[in-house]
Amino acid sequence: MTRIDLSDRLLRTLTPWRTAAVWRIAFSGGLDSTVLLHLLARLAKTETLPPLSALHVHHGLQAAADTWPEHCRTFCDALGLPLQVIRVQVRPGASLEGAARDARYAAFDAAIGRNEALLTGQHRDDQAETLLFRLLRGAGVRGLSAMPAHRPLGRGSLVRPLLEVGRGELEAYARAHQLAWIEDPSNQDLQFSRNYLRHQVMPLLAARWPQATASLVRSAAHAREAQGLLDELAQLDLDDARTPDAFDWLGVPSLALAPLAGLSAARQRNALSHWLTPLTRLPDADHWSGWSDLCEAAVDAAPVWRLADGELHRSAGRLWWLSGQWLRTPAAGEAWQDPSRPLRLADNGRVMLLGQTPAGPLRIGYRQGGETMRLPGRGGRDLKRLLNERGVPAFVRGRLPLLFRGEELLAVADLPGLDGSAQDGWRLHWQPSDEDQGLR
Q1: 98 is in an annotated binding site
Q2: Tens digits of per-residue pLDDT, 329-367?
Q3: Which of 291, 312, 334, 410 has its CA 20 to 30 A from that of 107?
Q4: Locate the Lysidine-tRNA(Ile) synthetase C-terminal domain: which residues (predicted)?
Q5: 168 labeled binding residue
Q6: CA–CA gap between residue 55 and residue 65 (Å, rounded)
Q7: What would the pLDDT profile of 34-78 be if each residue is shown by its tens digit?
Q8: What does the alpha-carbon distance between residue 266 and residue 133 come to, in Å, rounded to a whole number?
């Protein structure tokens, strides 16, 4: 494959990202990223491309790596490209490979700005290895799709423009242009699973089936197509469950349970996985018993499925995803010294009085049990019964701000008919959270 052919293919692949604000290249100094960076630098001389810059993540896992940033800087200087070196701490864990990857992508995530693209050098052989590795781990259809050619990353996009290019083509290009690259000694260490596949398994497969790499990549493409169909099915099922709710103002992701409960078990898992994937890491297929327990709990129960990054609650006929502040018990109530100004609550957003300020002294508290509230024309009513009448989800009952004057309960935030006095012209408004309940 000639340089012109490879350049043209790269340019065609990157066409959708020609309008990006910046192209940042993940530059390890290895063969793949060296060729990618060199190709782009040459293309930039004849094509109108976004500004180019390189990112080198220094993991500090081995002594040899201390010289790599300087190698990368020298290479970038020769091309006239800026280089940013990011040093990361790799958390010890069961998988050093996985921990290093997590640290690397966390650094990329933080470095990528709005409408920027991060280009990485993974190639066709990497794709085949990824499929085989995930197959051996028992991955489902999504995992067997291997690496996507592009996906969102931080405020921008991650793009892998070399997935259709074999390692042999990259080596030929590097030799033709006399490029020097880093050979990571750890890439020869067979204790790492990917290295074992690359050096021991893939050569055996290729010796018996010369088209093994291409066939594995084609299988990954089939899996991606199948996953696309599953995603479309999930969207259809989720559309039925995304019904409006009286408590949407809480800002908590939720779904109606009944439409999901009517689906087969496989479609339930598919829809729920699609919904939860942006919110949390999911268990493997053998550890979904928490979902079954949640669905099968008694009608009057308030079951919880605890996941890696939060909890799924069932209450008031809906599923609610809680994370961050919603999992922390709000501190005890406090006196409201200046009711004319919003009051920030510890771990519970803030409250404010809209309209006329009732006479004080006032304080904010939370339900402890046994509270009663006097309503016009109804006399004193038990707060628990009032919350039941309005279908307040169980998880929010203990953190709904209550306005007291002395021991008298004056208002329950944001519940129509309980949130203030229409006669006196005021009501209690609660902004539940300053945190983002969205993407992890």
Answers
A1: no
A2: 888 778 998 998 999 998 899 999 999 888 879 999 999
A3: 312
A4: 362-430
A5: no
A6: 15
A7: 999 999 999 999 999 999 999 999 987 777 788 899 999 999 999
A8: 24
Strands 310-315 and 304-307 turn out to be antiparallel
Pick from 327, 257, 329, 341: which is nearest to 299 by CA? 257
Is the Cβ–Cβ distance between 103 and 88 less than 8 Å?
yes
32 is in an annotated binding site: yes
Confidence of residue 422 (pLDDT cuts 50, 70, 90): confident
pLDDT at 236: 97
Determine if residue 315 is labeled as part of a ligand binding site: no
Structural domains of the chain in order of their starting residue, each with its CATH number: 3-225 (3.40.50.620), 246-322 (3.30.465.60), 334-431 (no CATH)
Our CA dihedral for 167, 172, 173, 175, rounded to 10 degrees, sits at 120
Q: Taking the CB of residue 385, how many other CB atoms lie within 10 A of it?
A: 11
| Number of Cβ within a 10 Å radius of residue 61 | 15
Contact 190, 199 (CB under 8 A): yes
| C-beta separation of 123 from 32 below 8 A | yes
Q: Are 307 and 277 in contact (CB under 8 A)?
A: no
Token pair recorded at residue 127? 């794709």
Q: Is 121 annotated as a binding residue?
A: no
d(CA 118, CA 55): 9
Beta strands in 323-387 (DSSP E): 334-336, 343-344, 350-355, 362-365, 372-375, 379-382
pTM score: 0.80
Confidence of residue 245 (pLDDT cuts 50, 70, 90): very high
Residue range 362-403, pLDDT digits in tens: 999 999 989 999 888 778 899 999 999 999 999 999 999 999
The helix (run of H) or strand (run of E) holding residue 365 is strand 362-365
Q: Per-residue pLDDT tens for 178-237?
A: 999 998 888 888 988 889 999 999 999 999 999 999 999 999 999 999 999 999 999 999
Token duo for residue 133: 């590795």
157 is in an annotated binding site: no
Residue 177 and residue 179: Cα distance in Å, rounded?
Answer: 5
